[in-house]
Amino acid sequence: MKILMDGSDVDAFRYLNDYSPLDGVTTNPSILAKGKGTAEEQVLQIADLLDKQQNLHVQVVSVKYEQMVEEAKRISKALSRNVFIKIPVSPDGLKAVRSLRGDGINTTVTGVYTTMQAVMAAKAGAAYVAPYINRIDLAHGNSEIVIKQIVQTFRTYGFSTKVLAASFKNTRQVISVMEAGVEEVTLSADLLKNLIHHKETDTSIEAFTEDFTSRFENSNEMFLK
Ligand code: G3P
Known about the structure:
Strand order of the largest sheet: 1-2-3-4-5-6-7-8
CATH topology: TIM Barrel
Largest sheet: 8 strands, parallel, barrel
Radius of gyration: 21 Å
Distance between the termini: 43 Å
Strand content: 15-25%
Bound molecules: SN-glycerol-3-phosphate
Shape: globular
Number of strands: 8
Number of domains: 1
Structural class: alpha/beta
CATH architecture: Alpha-Beta Barrel
C-alpha cells in the first residue's frame, strides 16, 4: 500500500518523509493557490525532493480538451521525471485521457464521486482514479460503499487502473479504504502527522521518563558510562 502527501509544502514533506518514507506527492490547483511562490516553482521544488520510486501527480488547470492535452504535455516536459497528470472527470477530461495515453503520458482521473465515473475513467485508460472520500460523504454519498464498488469492479473486470483515494479528514476514513483494498491514499500533511499520534501514547512516554529519572538520580538515558 502506498501513502502520498496531498500538498506542496516542501518543509512538511521533508519532515514527514524523514521518519516515515512517503510514496509521493499529489497537488491540485487549489493546493497550489494556497502555497508559497508560483505554481510552477512549487511543482518544481517538490519534484526535486522526490526519488525515482516516489510518484508525482500534477493536475491540469485547463478544462477544455485541446488545452488539457497541451498543458499535460507542457507539465510532463517541464519535469525531468515521470509524472501522472491529474485530469478531472468530464467529457473533455476523458477525451484528453485517451489522447494522452496514446502519447505515452500517464493520467490520474480526479474529482471522482461515483463508481461509474471511476469505471468510465478506467475504460478511457487512466492509470489511476482518485475518489474524493470526505467530499463524497459531505455530498450525502457513502464513500465506504463507493470505494468498495470501485475496488470490486476493477477486480471483476480486470482493469489495470489503480485507486488513489483522496480527500480525507480523519484516520477512520483511511482505515476504511484500506479495508476495501485500495492501493494508494493521499493525505494532507496534518492528517499524515496525526496517523501516529495518540494522546495516551504521549502520556505513556512522559511516565516512562518520569519513573526512570526519579529512581535513577535524574538520569534520562542508560549506559552513559
Ligand atoms: O487530492 C484531492 C484533494 O486535494 C481534495 O481534498 O481535502 O480538498 O477535499 P479536500
